[in-house]
Amino acid sequence: MPIADHFPLTIVVGTLFGAYLCPVVAYVRRRWLGRFAAAVTVLAFLQGVHLMDRVVHGEQPLYRVGGWAAPWGIELLVTPSAALMVLVLSGVGMLIAFYCLGYIDHEIAPRAQGWYYAAFLLLLSGMLGMSVTNDLFNTFVMMEITTLGACALVAASDTQRAAEAALRYLLLASLASTMILFGIGMVYSITGNLNLTFVTKELALAWRTYPRLATASIGLLTLGFALKAALFPLHVWLPEAHSAAPSPSSAMLSGLVVKIYAFTLIKMVYVVFAPMSAHLAPLRELLVVLATGAIIGGSLFAMVQDDLKRLLAYSTVAQVGYIFLGAGLGSPSAIMAAFFQIISHALTKSCLFLCAGIILERTGRRRIRLMDGMSKVLPVTTAAFTVAALSMIGLPTLSGFIPKWHLFQGGLEAHRPVFIGIVLMSGLLNAVYYLPIIWRFYFADPRTCPVVHRAVVDPAAWPRPPLYRRLVARLEAPPSMLAPVTVMALGLFVLGLFTGPTVAFLGRLAHSLLEVPVP
Q1: How many domains does the chain have?
Q2: Is 518 helix (H, G, I), strand (E, B) or coil?
Q3: Domain coverage including residue 158
């Protein structure tokens, strides 16, 4: 068997094995640690690119672990939606790993860095496993791995605030896991299977015999994944966890973690429980109502924040609402908008949090009112932040405009034009809290809040050639931190301008989920 045929397994196991090796690498040679973790993410990204290429060419790679066929064995299935998630997770995770090379020494104690990278790769491995697994029990296992990694990344700052945020996250995530486990148990009790393909086939008959159990199971699964995805009003853990965590952790949590749970819920509703689709109208209606509350409520909470990272956290609550709004409306354009929002928001919010990390590390400031004239000392960082903020608002030519446009079409297809007004209002609310930040960066008088630019390098501490130190000292931040935010900002332009291939792929994906012929 060619080695590429093992990629559905090795992309998960390889990343997990890298997590186990991180403490060993830290013990043997700590300065190799960041490069080792980055190399693991690069390898995962290359495998993700290969899997996406196979899916684009009409394949759906299926891997049977140990050669055992379902329902007795474990299957890993790379569907178009799974390939999309794998590519997003591995690509954004790789950029965040490179960012950590220049950032981690400023917030994570040397003795804890091996464990930080272990948690980082553990989290990435769990999310990749959730994307490709075709089994309910292993979905739960990978979900728990993801939860443990996320809690560790929140607590990594070693402050009381971070510890409290991590504990709150752990308690609510455990509650959500309990509901999901009970839901999986009910599905098993009425179908006798855990493999998703067999569960879907059995549900076509079993739900008529056990309608209450089937309804209770999808209700518990929906509630559990909605809590983990921070869908309003179940978002209470998110603002504190995302704002208290180190900036790379915040980027992982807001950019990727909430997306994998939203993706899994969409898979449950439109794939696993597809035989009950005619009876899921109340559930989709509930998703629409909660998504509307998230879009408006998250924006209103963000408007009153003065802490930059806390504002970004509440913005995530609002942006997650777009994903669930598309899933709830259920038309082809709305589903496509939900998946495009997953891609766009992963890049946008990761870019914003990483830029906030540079601002905090270089100036020591996180209060918005103290950021007057920031563009004078951090021009690249503030430019990338501005691009990502404008994408959040939905400016044309940027990727954030595309999901809003297709939500307009999705509202019309679902004969609910009122949601066009809601999405427009959300864009205006986003402008209300992002444009003042941009104005402070570029147009406020810096003399009112003079910014002190910290030194990028300590010449005495860097075992590098003097010329290299002088070149880096001229930059506003280390190259390993500037490069990822620059790539993300450019990616927002690429997604916004060259939308054809992405929209065509997502259109086919949406029609396949809804079992509607592609026009």
Answers
A1: 1
A2: coil
A3: 3-514
Cis? peptide before 233, omega within 30° of 0: yes
How does pLDDT run across 284-339, given as a tens digit for each residue?
Answer: 888 888 888 889 888 888 888 888 888 998 888 888 889 998 888 878 888 888 99
Q: d(Cα 17, Cα 258) in Å, to the nearest integer?
A: 24
Give the containing element (helix H, strand E) for 259: helix 258-267
- Examine residue 107 and state whether it is found in any structural domain, yes or no: yes
Does residue 56 lie within any of the structural domains?
A: yes
List C-alpha distances in Å: 513 to 43, 346, 507.
Answer: 30, 22, 10
Model confidence pLDDT, tens digit, residues 336-372: 889 999 999 999 999 999 998 888 887 878 888 888 7
Is 387 part of any domain?
Answer: yes
10 Å Cβ neighbour count for 211? 13
Measure the CA–CA gap between 335 and 226, rounded to whole angstroms: 17
> Position 160: which residue type?
Q
CA distance linking residue 134 with residue 184, whole number of Å = 13
Q: Does residue 281 sit within a domain?
A: yes
Report DSSP letters for 351-401, one per residue: HHHHHHHHHHHHH---BGGG-TTGGGT-HHHHHHHHHHHHHHHT-TTSTTH
